[in-house]
Design brief:
The structure holds two protein chains of two kinds.
Chain A lengths: L4 E3 L2 E4 L5 E6 L6 E8 L3 E9 L2 E5 L6 E5 L5 E5 L8 E8 L9 E2 L3 E5 L1
Parallel strand pairs in A: 2-11
Antiparallel strand pairs in A: 1-3, 3-8, 4-5, 4-9, 5-6, 7-8, 9-10, 9-11
Chain B lengths: L3 E4 L2 E5 L4 E7 L7 E6 L6 E6 L5 E4 L2 E6 L4 E6 L8 E7 L8 E2 L3 E6 L1
Parallel strand pairs in B: 2-11
Antiparallel strand pairs in B: 1-3, 3-8, 4-5, 4-9, 6-7, 7-8, 9-10, 9-11
The chains are: A mainly beta, B mainly beta.
Chain lengths: 114, 112
């Protein structure tokens, strides 16, 4: 069974640009969550999508957005990039929502903002 | 305000020793407490989890101890092995929400 797939794995952008990251969940998983991982802040919750609807949202500015498609694949977008957005962005899928359970993480997309 | 505080930041243990990582949480409504293990270049993977209706849960060499009154929980790794060298994250959530608050992580190095 294939795991969570994130693309691209690495990318470099400059300040002011925007970026789109993609996540394909494990087959059959309908919930997709996104986390930002930095050395100083650890893992911070961005948002969760289930059945194409945002179910939960973290404390990030509106420059961070996401969406989920009917096949459960998800994308997140960061606009007007800032240096502080440099981080590893992790996608996690789970079977259901509304019931805390195991998150299956991808290997992440490492974003560097210059 | 950091919802989950984790210590220590790093830990060095000899092979065969016991590794202990501690976490404290703020929100008394949290009712699901997992531990995740992350190897370099990989995403975190669930190691073990506990709900507050029990004070201890053991799976192999890994044990979670939970103290509801103190709002603290800890991970004990018995007979630590070099292969356990990784970063460990505690987390907390409301059981009916798929939104987790993670600790800042503990980098464990088990010396052979």
């Amino acid at each position: 069974k294939a795991g969570v797939t994130q693309t691209p794995r690495y990318l470099i952008k400059t300040r002011g640009q925007q970026v789109t990251l993609s996540c394909s969940p494990i087959s059959g998983h309908r919930s997709v969550s996104w986390y930002q991982q930095t050395p100083g802040q650890g893992l911070q919750f961005l948002f969760e999508y289930f059945s194409e609807t945002q179910r939960n949202k973290g404390n990030f500015p509106g420059r961070f957005s996401g969406r989920q498609f009917s096949n459960s694949r998800s994308e997140m977008n960061v606009s007007t990039l800032e240096l502080g957005d440099s981080a590893l962005y992790l996608c996690a899928s789970s079977l259901v929502t509304g019931e805390a359970g195991e998150l299956f993480f991808g290997e992440g997309s490492r974003l560097t903002v210059l | 305000q950091q919802q989950v505080k984790q210590s220590p930041q790093s830990l060095i243990v000899q092979k065969g020793g016991i590794s202990i990582i501690n976490c404290a949480y703020e929100n008394t409504a949290f009712d699901y407490f997992p531990w995740y293990q992350q190897f370099p270049g990989k995403g975190p993977a669930l190691l073990i989890a506990i709900r507050p209706d029990v004070s201890e849960k053991k799976e192999g060499r890994f044990t979670i101890s939970f103290n509801k009154s103190a709002k603290q929980f800890s991970l004990h790794i018995m007979d630590s092995q070099p292969g356990d060298s990784a970063t460990y994250f505690c987390a907390a959530s409301l059981y009916n929400f798929n939104k987790f608050y993670f600790g800042s992580g503990t980098k464990l190095n088990v010396k052979p």
